[in-house]
From TrEMBL:
InterPro entries reported for this sequence: Uncharacterised_pept_Zn_put
Keyword Metal-binding set for record: no
Top-level taxon of the source organism: Bacteria
Entry's Gene Ontology cellular component terms: membrane
Alphabetical keyword list: Membrane, Transmembrane, Transmembrane helix
Membrane topology of this protein: Single-pass membrane protein
This protein's name: Neutral zinc metallopeptidase
Pfam families (UniProt xref): Zn_peptidase
Annotated localization: Membrane
Principal location listed in the UniProt entry: membrane
Membrane-crossing segments per the record: 20-40
Taxonomic lineage from the root: Bacteria, Pseudomonadati, Pseudomonadota, Gammaproteobacteria, Moraxellales
Amino acid sequence: MRWKGRRVSSNVEDRRGSGAKVGGISIIGLVVAFVAWKFFGVDPQQAYQATQQITAAQNPSSNAPQQLTADQKEASDFVGTILADTEDTWTPIFKQLGQTYVPPKLVLFNGIVQSGCGTAQSAMGPFYCPTDQKVYIDTSFFKDMREQMGISGEQNQTELSRQDQAGDFAQAYVVAHEVGHHIQNLLGISSQVQQAQAQGSRAQANQLSVRLELQADCFAGIWANHNQQRTQFLEAGDIEEAMDAAQKIGDDYLQKRSTGQVVPDSFTHGTSQQRMHWFEVGLKSGDLNQCDTFKASI
Ligand SMILES: [Zn+2]
């Protein structure tokens, strides 16, 4: 995937390395980790690791403003470029609808973060908070995609020799999916779904969550379609790489990996098959009207 040399969005908020400002005593870190564990069901060990990161950040020797490493700088340039691409995709689409696109802010963080939706931990993965209209990403999730989920772009012959670019389109797809949730928020889809969920059964609420997630995948496909027309950024193997990511981040795959069996009732993101399908619908059509996952039989 080509990404260097394009506009970098000014809507990236880099909070990495700001841990020292979070609190003066490590007990606060412990409380934060405990809250993450209690309310988000984060693995206690991971919560503990987050505490450790905060403790490390409070070490007097690290009180000086932290310089970003070359890798961290590269990650923010990458995410900022993809965010700018989504802005340049959705602005004209909203204009056609007679609306003004208000882009989301994107927060980069390390370990743990305060969001408008509460305290969040990187183990939860990237997420969108509708309250403050911000996307939150711990760039270490990209490393996990590569190292733990095996999304390394191994289908991508053109990128294999360049370790730093392996899996980059899969990462861009994650950003575009989260921006997809922002689009749903702006279009009022999220609030309609929330209302319907409050009235339905738990199984119905889950079904609606799945459709919301699949629509965000379809919106990510629309981004890929429009961005390709605008910048010709795709290289051979990129689409396969995104499909591989959609497959591996599908709920059935994650559940199989963790429990050895699939429990369809608790699906919230859709199966691997469904995710691949809806990304492709957006990619091929580039058309918002094709992404009505609520009407379609899935
Ligand atoms: Zn999502």
